[in-house]
Amino acid sequence: MTDKTYSLAIHGGAGTILKSKMTPEREDAYLAGLRTALEAGEAVLRDGGSAMDAVTEAVCALEDEPLFNAGRGAVYTTEGVQEMDACVMDGQDRRAGAVAGIFGPKNPVRAARAVMERTPHVCLIGPNALALAREAGLEFEDRDYFFTQARWDALQETLAMRAKGEESDDPARRHGTVGAVARDRNGDLAAATSTGGMTAKLPGRVGDTPMPGAGTFAENATCAVSGTGHGEIFIRWTAGAEVAARMRHRGETLEEAARHVVMNDLGPNDGSGGVIAVDRDGNIALPFNCEGMYRAFVREGGERGAAIYA
Ligand code: ASP
Hints:
four-stranded antiparallel beta sheet; globular
């Protein structure tokens, strides 16, 4: 039997800023963004709302904050456009909805949810994904709304480096994503993830975020997971599903399973990044293998926190 308390964890991406480049002001701004999003999700759970609604609201708040690479603040492709991926997954029945490569909806995570709720499909791309978002009454925004100087500059820097044949760069610097995982008072789990992807990705590139089992996963019997990091590796190692599989088949705890996947599977294979995860008992794990991961969490009647570095 569940103890009927809620748990919520969110992330705003892994490794985007090296500690050496962080100022106290920036750190405060990131932490404030995380706390706002945590509160948006927690308000739902506190009122007895569902894990699915909580992760959706938390991710919307993160998408609205230009500091994070999702929604407003999404990174640019090599062509200087933004293409966003998002996914939601419901632990009750593994229903999932996703969109990939879209531009327009203010909150791509709501478009992902519309796919889950209004179609028999899991993932939509292209004009029909946008048509569905319109039909669902979702808000749209234009290029000005989504523009951020910092992301534009990051693209120019990356392109300039590539032109010189340098691809050096801290791998952790290029990415970012937002996500949330929750267990509600019913004991139901849900996960949501949203991203602009990786700076200077090829147009049409789709990452792990909108792929259930890779960057997003939820199953009531085990856990809900949202990942952030080098998406290609999260896809190839089916990161989210692997955390659940280790719990299901090996009897590992959430902490053991999540840590193993991040440190032993992803880390040594160029999979810089981390995951946030919650299990059926409300335990939370937040492992990452790079310098930092913007993250915050709360357990009803228990601990809460927000942090960037280890
Ligand atoms: N995983 C995301 C992607 O590959 C990026 C990130 O989380 O940093 O699209």
